[in-house]
Amino acid sequence: MTAQQTDFYANPGEETEGTVYTAMGGGDFADIAAEQADRNDETLVINMGPQHPSTHGVLRLMVECDGETVLSIRPGIGFLHTGIEKNMEYRTWTQGTTFVTRMDYVAPIFNEVAYCLAVERLLGIEDQIPQRATDIRVLMMELNRITSHLVAVGTGGMEIGALTVMTIGFREREMVLDFFEAVTGLRMNHAYIRPGGVANDLPETGIAQLRDLIGWLEDHLPEYAAFCNENPIFKGRMCGIGVQDLSACLAMGVTGPVLRSAGYPLDLRKSQPYCGYETYDFDVITWDTADAYGRFRVRLDEMWESLKIVKQCVERLDASTGEPVMIDDPKIAWPAQLANGPDGQGNSNEHIKHIMGESMEALIHHFKLVTEGFRVPAGQAYVPIESPKGELGCHVVSDGGTRPHRAHMRDPGFNHLQSVPIQCEGGMLADIVVAIGSLDPVMGGVDR
Amino acid sequence: MSDKTPEKLPGEEKTVDTPVTDPEAAPKAGLEREDAQPGATPEAAHPVPTRAGMWSEGTGDTSGYGGIVREVPFPRPSVPPFGSWYDQVHDRLATLVEDPFVKVVVDRGEITFHIAREKLAESMRTLRDDAHLRFELCASVSGVHYPEDAGAELHVVYHLASLTHNRRIRVETSCPDDDPHVPSVVPTYPAADWHERETWDMFGIVFDGHPHLTRILMPDDWVGFPQRKDYPLGGIPIEYKGATVPPVDQRRSY
């Protein structure tokens, strides 16, 4: 090594050449420091995020503090805005599932279900969806609810230093994602739920794998309660933090576990059932503390309720093996009985044989579906479902064409982040992290 | 209609040209007519959009059917009785607010109240506060751009939920493109704050009375309203550290 350190790009103190696009010299920090000195108080404005490990993605928080007390806090969003809704207007209705699944990427199945239920309502085919497809949707949703709550509980724990909760949370989640991978081919971003049914039936080993998974979850879900419920440090960080009472929740449009932790048993699966939830036996979990600890306990208990629904799904799916999983309408249905081809891609040899060798009509249908897509009668629909975070609504407008005129997702996290000032102002700086974690926003869904 | 043919159901002999004025006059049998729905009005509030060719937007059509022009009818306005609890909400709001409705559409099991923007703030406050209405939750606000709807190009759609009565309604209001102003409902529903900011951001609809109407998803200095129909998808050059990536429609196509 030479005495003079050489940097590939530039040595310290070296003159810059050309246009420099990065902030050099610390910007206007000297001005801020001078202004602060003039004001002669302890108030500091701190910018937290968007690149901050405990903001659940790219959330920016502008915090005004006096010492460690939060005087005011304003969330800033939009850093993960990818124009999904605009993109959907340029793709067919079926391709829309590929976009919505990337919104709230921790709970992708719910986005797909909300979107597909809305499209099905526009098409007027809600009653024609095969029962097995609906059962698979419920199964996937409830497993996804468990994984989403595991992420909420795990990352929420990690952010306050309970790292083990995160490591075991992601361990369990990985087991569920293995099952998702076996069914849909992907761990996340499945695009599995399609208008008219689901993309594929369960694999042959699906039910057996599912029973193993249920056994695993039954063995390991109690660990969270054992680690956290009465842990004095955990309770010290969570109890009485991020309090938002019922009236504040309703004013801010807060739903899901946050509202239920305030004691209101609103669950769309019970109050406005969809996908046949009225036929399942489960309870709505509430808590009465309206704080971060209550939300943690609600999520913990909801995982058990979801597991209860999953078990009921197993019995139904076991009984309905071999039944169709896609609507019996050649103008809407994509081929849904896919085999795993030698290239690893899903393909349906039966379907190819049918369209290439047997039926001209089937070939025409297939060609129209794949190139242009199906037409949806003009009108609009809004379908709300109970996602792990709260009410996830899908508003779709059709002008009678093969693409959405407008698609809008009402993501619960978008609403919930509005109540960050309610939960954090007057509290301590370190409790912001706990409050945000208990709201469980996923920026992919918030920013879309 | 004569009395000598009692076996025929009322309305069966009506021709396609006979206008249907009320639910009783609608044919109960015979020729199925699209305009035979009760309350069908000759001119819909939306002008009926048309579509040419077999393909969307008439592109890439080599089939020879490019000359075909199809109408795309939006759901027609409905007249009372709407059935179910819809009438209770409709009548109650009509009692409390003077002449609130532009039209009411019941379609696919969902009811949409189209309310003039002048009446919006009062109607929303009534919908929330009245004990028989009690729509406590403003779940969602979204904008929709109908470029063909002259004089009302920009629509704002509010989805309200009543937890007390377990009901959901949709309230829709509209404003012309050259006067994109709608009163804010934030004083009634604080939850609409960010939703209205997003609608301003994406559609350029100004919500009068909003406490802090700024862009929320797009950068603060963005020009244009991306979700409008005349705004291109991805027509923006991307600058990264001095290099410029051209917009998708101007890239080399290989």
Walk me through the structure.
Chain A has helices spanning about 30-40, 85-90, 95-100, 110-125, 130-160, 165-185, 205-220, 220-230, 230-240, 245-250, 255-260, 270, 290-320, 350-360, 360-370, 410-415, 420-425, 430-440, 445; strands spanning about 45-50, 60-65, 70-75, 195, 195-200, 340, 345, 380-385, 390-400, 405-410. Chain A has a three-stranded antiparallel sheet. A three-stranded antiparallel sheet of chain A has the order 8-9-10. In chain A, helix 5 packs antiparallel against helix 18. The mean pLDDT of chain A is about 85. Chain A contains 19 helices and ten strands. Chain A has a domain at about 95-330 and about 375-415: Cytochrome-c3 Hydrogenase, chain B, CATH 1.10.645.10. By secondary structure, chain B is an alpha+beta fold. Chain B has a domain at about 85-210: Beta Polymerase, domain 2 (2-Layer Sandwich), CATH 3.30.460.80. Chain B has helices at about 85-95, 115-130, 190-205, and strands at about 50, 70, 100-105, 110-115, 135-145, 155-160, 165-175, 180-185, 205-210, 240, 245. In chain B, strand 3 and strand 4 (about 110-115) form a beta hairpin. Chain B starts with about 50 loop residues before the first strand and ends in a 9-residue tail after the last strand. The relative contact order of chain B is 0.08. At the A-B interface, helix 2, strand 8, strand 9, strand 10 and helix 16 of A face strand 5, strand 6 and helix 3 of B.
